[in-house]
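User: Fold this; tokens only.

Assistant: Input:
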Amino acid sequence: MNSKKELWVLLASFVLPIALGTAFFYWNPTAFTGNTVNYGEFVNPIIATEKQDVRFSNNTQGNLQGLWTLTYVTNACDGICKKALKDMKTIRILMNEDMRRIQRMLLINGSTDVQEVGVLIAHPSATLSQQLAKFPNNTLFLIDPLGNVMMHYNPQTLSIKRMLKDLKRLFKYSRIG
């Protein structure tokens, strides 16, 4: 008789936590949605880029494959653009040993006279411009090493500390780039 009681206690100790967790999940679904630890907003659905979607200017050679890319998208590079480029440089430098995993890119629809060292200057294709038109102008994007536009930030309210936290968390768990 005692062994049957022990069997039921042992069985309940394994089954009860799973049953309670499942019940809590289905009775209170808001507890598991909407709460994220990232400060940027995910691009949903992810925008996959092809090689022909980004045309690099004549004096810069680049590639979206293999490195994380901080990309500033604009129609004309004005004061906000130049500040965003400096913020991107600061973020890259503050990543310490992971700074080699990041490159900076200015994706501009028009022409520009920006000659900042370390910034790739490129022009989007019509398809990519149409996909990025859903977002406000002057948006900062994060492109993964596979060429997918995955996260975006508003540069007017950009907090370097928060973006650093996002990047460090990404790089901690990322095996690519």
